[in-house]
Amino acid sequence: MRQLITVTFLGVILTACFAATPGSAQQPYPQQYPPAQQQPYPQQYPPAQQQQYPQQYPQQQYPQGQYPPPQGQYPPPQYPPGQGYPQPQYGPPPVMAPQQLDQLVSRIALYPDGLLAEVLTASTFSNQIPDAARWADEHAYLHGDELARAIQDDRLPFDPSVLALIPFPSVLDEMARDMSWTQALGNAVLAQRPDIMDAVQRMRQEAYNYGYLRSNQYVQVIASPGYIEILPVNPGYYYVPAYDPRVVYVRPRPGFYVGSAIRFGPGIVIGAGFSPFGWGGAGFGWHEHNILIDHHPWDRTWANRTAYVHPYAERPHYNGPQAEHHDYHAHEEHRDGHDEHHDHH
């Protein structure tokens, strides 16, 4: 009898133990840690937000063939106000790495040497660029020596390096619309001129190696040991190249016609009337890292940037708005569109 009671008591204890231990101890965990799709994170960071970036930075922002913008389309309200003369005072800029300089000069590295020399020198007077671009847009109907006479008659208060770009309103427009780039370029020209010139040569070499940079009816491309020159076919005519830096410095994709990557705008005549603005002999001494203006080395640096050191005539003096004006009279044009007459009063 005692043995029966003992066995029965042990059976009750074992039954209670099995009842307190579930068949699977993992069943409550899915309730404590729900599946990932039930977490709130996908709602806080929806995938749809990633679709906003192509709308903010559309590919159509830089259409091929419209770089720089066409001449004559420079709305003055989009230009920042000019700051006049002299340059603002601040400390020296930080030294830029070669990769940064490559990116900085990529949009102008394939300009003909003379035009590139004028762009580099003019960028050091970045505070004058917006007003010069505005004046160039307002007088876009003048060309050649008539434009040179208008510049002198209006006694424009800009440095000759800036006046030299007035025949190129598309270039001035590019510089005026992106003043942060223009100021960075000017600072680098003053503080790191040899590095800037080396960056130009690196970018030209890339475009040459991939077959984009070649001689044509607009420019002569002369590859010498250590440097590449880009010269106008006719010294009196300059053509502004239009290209996408994202294309001409990378290997072309299979089947891409490299000859279509660089296009040229209309020819711009640079005659004797622009000699006072440095066009008598603009270019580079690549081996010596010299920028040449009027066949002379351009000596402006960060240290002497407040001084007037150009090898030109004395600085023009601005006496306020002038009474003279510049009229455009178009006679009946022939079919070739060349019978035009410009008067300067």
> What value does the Rg take, in angstroms?
34 Å
Number of strands: 11
> Would you tell me the structural class of the helices and strands?
alpha+beta
Distance between the termini: 138 Å
Amount of helix = 25-40%
**Number of helical elements:** 13
Folded structure, characterized:
The chain has 345 residues and is α+β, with helices and mostly antiparallel strands. It has a domain of 223 residues. The chain is 34% helix and 11% strand. It has 13 helices and 11 strands. Helix 5 packs across helix 12, helix 7 crosses helix 10 and helix 11 packs across helix 12. The longest helix has 19 residues.
Task: Give the structure's gist in a few sentences.
With 345 residues, this protein is α+β, with helices and mostly antiparallel strands. The protein has helices at residues 2-20, 29-32, 41-44, 52-56, 98-105, 113-123, 129-138, 144-153, 160-163, 169-177, 179-191, 193-209, 245-248; strands at residues 219-224, 227-232, 237-238, 241-242, 263-264, 268-269, 283-285, 290-293, 296-297, 326-329, 341-344.
Key words describing this protein structure:
alpha+beta; 3-stranded antiparallel beta sheet; 345 residues; two-stranded antiparallel sheet; disordered C terminus
Please render the helix and strand layout as text.
Blueprint: H1 2-20, H2 29-32, H3 41-44, H4 52-56, H5 98-105, H6 113-123, H7 129-138, H8 144-153, H9 160-163, H10 169-177, H11 179-191, H12 193-209, E1 219-224, E2 227-232, E3 237-238, E4 241-242, H13 245-248, E5 263-264, E6 268-269, E7 283-285, E8 290-293, E9 296-297, E10 326-329, E11 341-344
Antiparallel strand pairs: 1-2, 3-6, 4-5, 7-8, 8-9, 10-11
Helix pairs in contact: 5-12, 6-11, 7-10, 11-12
